[in-house]
Structure formats: structure tokens, C-alpha cells
Amino acid sequence: MAAWMKRFIFNCRNSTSRITGELSHQEIKQAELKIVKMVQDEYFIHEVNRKKLNSLTTYKDGEGILRVKTKITYRKDSEDFKNPIILPSHHQVVERLIMTAHKKNSHAGLQMPLNILREHYWILNSRKTVRSVLSKCVICLRHAKRNVTTPYASLPENRIKDVAVFEIIGFDLAGPLYLKGGSKAWICIYTCAVFRAVHLELLSSLTTEAFLQSFRRFIARRGRPSIVYCDNGSNFIGASNYLKSVNWTEIAQFSSVRRIQ
């Protein structure tokens, strides 16, 4: 827009040599430098803002643009790359430059637009400024928004008691595992409800005797539990063909005699 305005002014002043057609690279560059000079004159006119340049080695080029002098002055490259133009950290033009670089690079994160802008401009407090501008990007905020999470439910009383390890347990069966020779085996998993410790026992079959032997081995190794939880066959229902022979009455009698709930 600024380049079109400069051409319009030029054509009004020079009616005999008017410029027509598309904007040239030189016209766009001159318009950018004009805007940059206006920003610098507006910001660095105050003494407080000029003090921010004390840590930099600065100079003015032939166009009156304030630049920072770097250590790569003798590099064969553009003047903007060797000696970037100084821009303030808080200005609408600077925010537009940052947002344009951000959108052109597919809404990249902090480092990408920062590196691209530093090829032409030296923005004061650049990292903080770029981060502040990117935090206002609506599209990035929309995609970075966290999903609604369900609040955690309180743990049951038996999960938070002061008890010994494996005093309150739950058990389940996993398998079958196919062994050499065509035989099968199952794993009985005992877990502590409080400390989440795990104890594994191997079952050669799904009979009542095999389970009780596994339970006796568990008690001999870990001690007698006071409470035992079981899903009462929710996953056993899918294996009902294997578990029809399990005598749960016998298991209940075995448990009640040993004061196991």
C-alpha cells in the first residue's frame, strides 16, 4: 500500500513521466525503508528509548536508517543481512512483521520467525517480543487448546488404608499360553490394591484345585490377605467353557475359614 501511495505522489508531481504497470522491487524496497525510518524516528526520538541502544554498535546508512554493526561486515551478502535494521520491541509495524513471518511459515514456533526476521531486522528484546506476538495468534491458540478432562474420582477406602503389602489384593487370570507339546497354561495375577505390587502364579488348568493350589502358594509366599477382590468372572464369562468346572462355593469356604473376605 505504501509503495502505491509513493507512486501516486510521484505521478502527481511528474505528469510528463508517469510510472505505470506493476510495482517494481525497487519501489517496494523504498516504501519499506520509508516505513522503517518513520518507525525509528517515532520511537527513538525519546531519550529513554535511545538508552536501549547503548549496548549496541549502531550507525546510520545513506538513507538515514539506523542499523546495528555486526562482525560480518566484510561478508559478501546484502546490507540487511550484514547490518540489520534496528526496530523497537513495541510497535504495530513490528507486530505485523512478526505475524506475517509466522503465517508465511505455516504458523511455525518461536525460533523460525525469529531467525527469518533477523536476516533483515534487529528487534530489541526480539525473543520476548516474538513470543508475545505469537501468543495472540488465534489459530495457534485454537489448536493448542487442551481438551476438557474429567476430574479424578476419589479412591475407594480399601485403596488408601494403612495395611501391609498384599493384605488387600485383587486377582485375575491371563491366558491361555500355549506350551510345547500342545498343552496350555494360565497365569494368575495377584495385585496389591494399595501398593500395586504384583505376584504371578502359573496354573496348569482352570480347575478349582489348580486355583486353590495357586492361592495357597501365594499365601505361603506373601502372607494371608484380609480382603480379596475378583471381577467375579467378567472376563471369565468369555472363557465360560473353561470355567464351568470351577467350584466357587468351595473357594468361598476355603476363604471364609481363613478370614478372607
TrEMBL record:
Pfam families per record: Integrase_H2C2
Superkingdom of origin organism: Eukaryota
Domain Integrase catalytic as annotated: residue spans: 152-261
Molecular function terms from GO: nucleic acid binding
One GO process term, biological-process aspect: DNA integration
Descriptive protein name: Integrase catalytic domain-containing protein
